[in-house]
Write a structure and sequence with these properties.
Length: 307
């Protein structure tokens, strides 16, 4: 049977679910959970999406993601492919890890959104030792929601949800805690499964449009890195790797390009090398203060005519 097309909307908020094939634990060890969150953080730097909540269990995980104008399929397929490759290498295995495609559902109302956070944060209730204390589970965003600890992942924008319970964050956290703990599991499952709002719910935040000009990105990177633009087309030169990596990263993020589109633009490069360059670009942003906000800097200067 042919797969149905995934429903996607620019700027939509998604409930994203990933699950392993039946005989394999998706997260065999706690360090696997940390690895997935770290890779998601790098993916977030590449695509500039938002994460509102998450919970990682042994064989599945839930996320609330605001795509912020990016393609949710590109985000999740790239992330899961990278994780599966690393997982198989670490655990000395081969073959598929994920159960079919990831699942996603557009969040269609604020009521659904708040109910969804409770559903996700109550997942640890199914684990021995956490039946009455889901806030103690380390691999969930609930601890951050309740102010138990600060976000260590670099992923969360939890205040967006918390402020639905009031602008005083401390009082809002208390109200949210009561909301999560009184929610009945049967009620939550019914809400999540049978939500039938007709209007699509969008974040009030500005959506990042992904229609920037690739040529202007190349002009910008050449200026920022101090190399000639023509050098961006030349591979296997040590002094151009940084510039080519940042160029590929900005094209991936801001032009809504696939790897094959970047191949055509830069020329004489494979899709796997484009993917590698994008991750090099992310690591440059993480380790070099000069380039940590390079995407935002380009966006702020997008109206300039670079020479």
């Amino acid at each position: 049977m042919a797969r149905s097309s995934r429903v996607k909307e620019d700027g939509a908020i998604y409930h994203v679910m990933i699950r392993s094939i039946s005989e394999i634990d998706l997260f065999k060890e706690d360090k696997d959970k940390v690895m997935y969150l770290n890779q998601m953080q790098k993916s977030m730097m590449m695509y500039k999406f938002k994460v509102y909540a998450y919970c990682i269990m042994t064989n599945h995980a839930h996320f609330i993601i605001n795509s912020n104008g990016a393609d949710i399929s590109k985000i999740m397929q790239g992330l899961n492919f990278k994780y599966a490759a690393n997982y198989n290498k670490i655990h000395n295995r081969h073959g598929h890890l994920f159960q079919d495609r990831f699942k996603s559902k557009i969040v269609k109302s604020q009521r659904y959104l708040t109910t969804l956070t409770a559903y996700i944060h109550n997942n640890p209730l199914k684990i021995n030792g956490y039946e009455k204390t889901p806030e103690n589970y380390k691999y969930s965003s609930l601890r951050v929601y309740l102010g138990v600890e600060k976000d260590k992942t670099g992923l969360l924008d939890e205040e967006y949800i918390i402020k639905f319970w009031g602008n005083n964050i401390e009082n809002a956290r208390k109200k949210y805690m009561k909301y999560v703990f009184v929610c009945d599991d049967e009620k939550l499952n019914k809400e999540i499964e049978f939500e039938n709002e007709n209007t699509e719910y969008r974040s009030e935040k500005v959506i990042l449009t992904r229609d920037f000009d690739a040529n202007k990105i190349m002009d910008f990177i050449a200026k920022e890195t101090g190399i000639k633009k023509i050098m961006l087309y030349i591979k296997n030169k040590k002094n151009t790797v940084k510039a080519r990596a940042l160029t590929a990263l900005l094209m991936r993020c801001l032009c809504d390009y696939k790897c094959k589109d970047i191949c055509k633009t830069l020329g004489n490069i494979t899709q796997s090398n484009v993917s590698r360059l994008c991750y090099i670009g992310v690591n440059i942003m993480l380790t070099n203060k000069k380039y940590e906000n390079i995407i935002e800097k380009f966006i702020s200067q997008k109206s300039l005519n670079f020479s």
